[in-house]
Design goal:
Elements (H helix, E strand, L loop, with lengths): L1 H28 L4 H9 L2 H10 L9 H10 L2 H7 L4 H8 L1 E2 L4 E2 L6 H13 L7 H8 L8 H15 L4 H4 L3 H12 L8 H5 L3 H14 L30 E6 L8 E6 L6 E7 L4 E8 L8 E8 L2 E7 L6 E10 L2 E12 L7 E12 L5 H4 L9 H4 L1 E4 L1
Length: 390
């Protein structure tokens, strides 16, 4: 009886060994299962989990949705990676879809994306991305709104940070394309200070553009006029001129009303001051009314205690107003401060940011625009601006 029990046990043992041999053979024949089997046999639990933890993230595809997500998450590096690298892509994200007479997907929010881009560049953490500004400018064409806003910020970034090398290092063909975009618009204006920082060949390209390339119904295409002609302004030139309006304001605090002449909306950014000497109005200063091609436009010039302020606003969509306050001090007209007002978003809980920015700039300074401070970046507004309910 005992002998009979041994036989089944022996058979079971043999079958078990046979099964193990079969499994080993299957592992060799079937490589799909082999790594998993060996890992579970040879690695402990901690070692098994490690490879999954250190596995590199796969790069996200370049898409408008991923740009939106990186902006929402304030993922700086991903935002820069997702931001358009050429003009066509930039325009297809933020510009106007002319064939369909409709905005592209991020048209309404382009200002926020552009401000965030240049904020990141000003941190100096991402210098290699500055060349992407130039790549977007290349083959660019002027448009209102976001494209014009990018153009403005690109020029400001180059001037304020003295990044003229970004243009000087280009071939002449590329430089011509970039400079054309940077200065194109309804009323192109030659920037002598900008030109003075360009090398000889690039400066010549810019001068030639203004002599020929921008001559398109431009009333003043020549940037190199005789200096004497710029001082022969008279009030009579602007009376009953539909492109200008005149305000009677005491601009030098002598108790006598003078005259301020300003170009109207979409008529340019000229602002001229004429002092009343008791007999006639003497030209005193030509400066700006802060109108921008494709941006804020002059609304009015208004008297206030000690001087006057210039109000501009964005005429098409959203809420965007600026009040530039000017006083007469030490025989000069000084822009003391600028109050920027803009809507936080288009949501129901939106509010108005009110940002009072100190300026202290002489309106006659040749480098005035290079020193003008704009509205604080979106990421800074919560700390430097106050909030008003709509």
């Amino acid at each position: 009886m005992k002998f009979l029990l041994v036989i089944p046990a022996f058979l079971l043992l043999s079958c078990g060994q046979g099964n193990k041999l079969l499994e080993k053979e299957q592992k060799v024949k079937n490589p799909v299962h082999a790594p998993r089997m060996e890992t579970s046999e040879n690695l402990n639990e901690d070692e098994w989990e490690t490879p999954a933890e250190v596995q590199e993230k796969r790069p996200l595809e370049i898409s408008i949705q991923n740009l939106y997500k990186s902006m929402e998450d304030k993922d700086e590096q991903e935002f820069l990676r997702q931001f358009p690298k050429d003009f066509n892509q930039f325009q297809n994200y933020f510009g106007w879809d002319t064939p369909n007479d409709a905005p592209h997907e991020l048209y309404e929010h382009g200002v926020h994306y552009i401000e965030y881009l240049f904020y990141l560049l000003r941190t100096n953490k991402y210098p290699s991305y500055e060349k992407n500004i130039i790549r977007i400018c290349e083959n660019g064409r002027w448009e209102a709104d976001a494209v014009n806003y990018f153009q403005y910020h690109a020029i400001s970034h180059i001037k304020e940070n003295e990044k003229y090398n970004l243009i000087n290092e280009l071939s002449d063909d590329k430089a011509k394309s970039v400079l054309f975009f940077l200065f194109d618009g309804h009323h192109p204006k030659f920037d002598a200070d900008f030109a003075s920082h360009l090398n000889t060949s690039k400066k010549q390209i810019l001068e030639e553009l203004f002599e020929t390339g921008f001559f398109d119904n431009n009333e003043n295409p020549d940037p190199f006029q005789d200096e004497e002609t710029n001082s022969t302004y008279t009030v009579s030139d602007y009376i009953e001129n539909e492109h200008f309006f005149i305000r009677d304001i005491d601009v030098n605090s002598d108790g006598v009303l003078d005259k301020i002449v300003s170009a109207g909306p979409y008529q340019g950014d000229e602002l001229l001051l004429f002092l009343n000497d008791g007999e006639e109005y003497q030209f005193a200063l030509k400066t700006t009314n802060f109108s921008e091609d494709g941006g804020n436009q002059i609304v009015d010039v208004v008297v206030e205690q000690g001087g006057f302020f210039i109000k501009t606003e964005f005429p098409d969509r959203g809420f965007n107003e600026t009040y530039h306050h000017i006083v007469f001090k030490n025989n000069s007209w000084i822009l003391t401060n600028s109050v920027y007002k803009t809507q936080s978003s288009n949501q129901e809980d939106a509010f108005i940011y009110v940002c009072d920015v100190h300026q202290g700039l002489n309106m006659a300074d040749a480098h005035f625009f290079g020193k003008l401070k704009g509205i604080p970046d979106e990421v800074e507004r919560d700390t430097v601006c106050i909030k008003e309910m709509l």
